[in-house]
Amino acid sequence: MSNELLVLSVVDRVATITFNNPPVNLLSTRVLVELGRLVDRLATDSSIKVMVITSSGRFFCSGADLKELQHIDTAQQAKDVSLRGQALLNRIEQLDKPVLAAINGSCLGGGMELALACHLRFASPASSFGLPEVNLGLIPGWGGTQRLPKLIGLSKATEILLTGSLISADEAQRCGLVNAVWSEADLLPRTQEFAARLAQKGRLALRAVLRALRAAQDNPLAEGLAQEAELFGELFETKDAKEGINAFLEKRQPNFQDQ
After folding, report:
1. CATH architecture of the domain with residue range 6-199
2. 184 catalytic residue (yes or no)
């Protein structure tokens, strides 16, 4: 499926969504609506186990369309824009399928907030990262102030948010914002290869990992541990768990059936 804004490709149970909104891949209202529809469809598609989000051109995504924001007149209108963007990124973060970002260029504002909502992030050496909203007299409105400190710590997040300055791919890796930096030529193939390795795991175990991680983020330790134990117990009733244990003992690769 393709149109002028998004391109979808599927290989080996990995769906790759490519932003194609040149020159800077703005997250206009139309792009957000199309992305939401596509994410919702892939979320319920049993043939898809992992998703990759990337973009064409030199920009991963430069954020919201300021020409649209220019027409906001009231606090309530702005709040509605914030809540709509947050709702979409929350859906991505809360998916039971891993979502990987292959960040091939500038990743700014709402684009960085989108990347923060993905479960893993990989970057090219030429990519840069920032939440420059303070330079416009604003703050991030799609979750950046909440997700960034959880990911990289309060001190570094405060620096990035207060200054609105950019950091390089290498610095992003050092502070834990991205998982790896790969060459521009290798970025997408290696991210898709990583996704394909995840797709070989059992769907139920992948889902349980993501749910347990969300519990760790959202709950006190005691509640998170209780959720972990619940998920651990549920998996032992699955065919995949029995197959995984047997395969290990028999020194062979498991053949998971997502059951």
Report:
1. Alpha-Beta Complex (3.90)
2. no
